[in-house]
Amino acid sequence: MGELGVPRRGIAGWVVLLLVAGCARTAEDDGAAETVSRELSAIVATCAVARGPVETMRTANAYWEPFEAGATFRSGDWVRTGPGASTRIELRGGGRIELEERTVVMVDRPAPPTGGGSVVALESGTARGLLPEDALPDGPLVLRGDNGRQVALTVEEHAGPTEFRVTRTARGMHLSVSRGRLLLSEGAHRRTLAAGYWLDVARGLEDAEHDGPPFPTSLSPGVDARIAWSPGLRITLSWGPLDGARSYQVQVARDLGFTRRIVDTQVEGLDFTFLPLEPGMFVWRVAALDAEGRPGESGFARRIFVERKPPRGLLVTPRDGYEAPDALAAEDLVFAWQSIGGEPRYRLVVARDRELRQPVLVREGGLQQVVLPGLAPGEYYWGVYVAEEPPVPLFQKARRLVVTGPPVER
């Protein structure tokens, strides 16, 4: 016997057994890790917000089941919203879609080795989407139309975050842009879609109808305007004229599905004064009526946030800490921010210091966007003010911007 009571001739056997046991445990651990990795990679989208009756039909099931915020979806899963419901889905490949009431979509993702970004098939209803200004790491978002036709969506360079809407109609699938510019591609076919315009993409780009504005272009307040509340507040809603329109139908509601309408009226001019009775979120849209009084399609629903405190933090792009590539020093750079409502003048300040006390460039105007021809390499800070005395900042802290490139010789 050995000192520990183990037969000497059996020590080698015990070592072998221990090694085998260790290998077995390692193999099990590796298998579990592989399973977790496979499960995670199968997720193509996540529910960020769910309001009202929302359901999903999993790929392996033949029935609908309710879900809540935090739910995950895999390739081939269906999602639908009921009356007065909505849900926001964050796509794994980047970007997001927000389903309005009575909408049905399928989320998908190309299988290896093809790969690529997220695929969305709209069966019915309306979905609103947002794509970031930066290219999506896994490839563009793809809309699947009839007969498997697929149109890829990417954001035009320097256009900033781009918002769009997809609506299923009896005739096709309307894709329209509310902010920014989309580049559409299908095989060798290419199209550009600017804000306020639409295209029927159900049958792809080769047979797409001529794009045009099917509804009046909303002008003011801007997208997601934030306005400070005060008794007797008056908000002017305005839009552009549409050829052949006799009058316009204006609707204001407390929800994106327009089930809780507080204004539904016709006007002959190009604006309407809305008087909110309390703070909160309001949504408005406008449609044109033809010579016979028939309403056309409503424009994009714009949200207005009436807040008890003065709004801050309205800068949109470039994001804080953005590093522009070398070539951008000689190209356009887009600065954008949200609206505060009304028709104020804005003042963009680009400076070398965080307090914006050493400006290198100042631009003033009534738009929510300024395009600069380029900045020399270096570190900058920027912010936007309402151009009044004293100036009112639309930010809590200035955003940092870095333009890379060779140092400037002094």
TrEMBL record:
InterPro entries: Ig-like_fold (IPR013783). This is FecR domain-containing protein. It comes from Corallococcus caeni. The lineage of its organism: Bacteria, Pseudomonadati, Myxococcota, Myxococcia, Myxococcales.
